[in-house]
Design brief:
Helices cover 11% and strands 50% of the residues. The strands form two sheets. Strands 3, 4, 5, 6, 7, 8, 9, 10 and 11 form a nine-stranded mixed beta sheet that branches. It has a two-stranded antiparallel sheet with strand order 1-2. The protein is mainly beta and 179 residues long. A hairpin with a 2-residue loop joins strand 10 (154-165) and strand 11 (168-177). The chain contains one helix and eleven strands. Residues 1-7 have low confidence and may be disordered.
């Protein structure tokens, strides 16, 4: 549809059902590209997620770290002279500069969106995790997401917020046991 110089585009995918990596889910998606900023809407409903592979990977990483620390500590090597090339096999991982900004919220200013995410049950976890829901809202460069979850049979409610403040990204999380 053409309105003056603007071309209106909207795409809609409704009621898709299937499995991704053995996780059953239902989803719908809509994109309205006719505005200055795209508007995305969607819903994802996941019946069950198996967290077993995640916890197995965490356990393996912990075992690897434990094995590394159990080895004899090597004496520190001197840094190569300035301008000398370093042997990639002996280069230690770079440290993160905590003053350096690693999170940008710029992409949030390029669209508006509303997504509902529901996970009914997460299995193979150390404690029960069920009835998780997020309503993710992106407007004017900020993301808010009311959240609810039942963790260890205790219902929790709260909100996640990502928003620019004085040119810097700010993250907020409020979560409390529901009465």
């Amino acid at each position: 549809v053409r309105d003056g110089d603007r071309v209106e585009l909207a795409n809609r995918v409704v009621a898709l059902e299937g499995e991704v990596a053995a996780t059953g889910l239902t989803r719908s998606f809509e994109a309205d590209l006719s505005q200055d900023r795209p508007i995305l809407n969607g819903k994802i409903d996941i019946r069950s997620i198996d967290a077993g592979p995640l916890f197995a990977a965490i356990q393996k990483d912990e075992q690897d770290l434990s094995a590394d620390s159990a080895q004899k500590e090597q004496p520190e090597e001197e840094s190569p002279p300035v301008g000398a090339t370093e042997d990639p096999k002996t280069v230690s991982p770079r440290k993160v500069d905590l003053d350096e900004s690693v999170l940008t919220l710029d992409p949030l200013g390029k669209l508006d969106a509303r997504f509902n995410l529901t996970v009914h049950e997460v299995v193979n976890t150390p404690t029960s995790l069920r009835d998780t829901s997020l309503e993710i809202l992106i407007e004017n460069g900020a993301l808010t997401a009311p959240v609810s979850v039942t963790f260890a049979e205790v219902p929790f409610k709260g909100e996640l917020r990502l928003a620019p403040e004085d040119g810097e990204p700010r993250i907020g999380l409020r979560l409390g046991a529901a009465q």
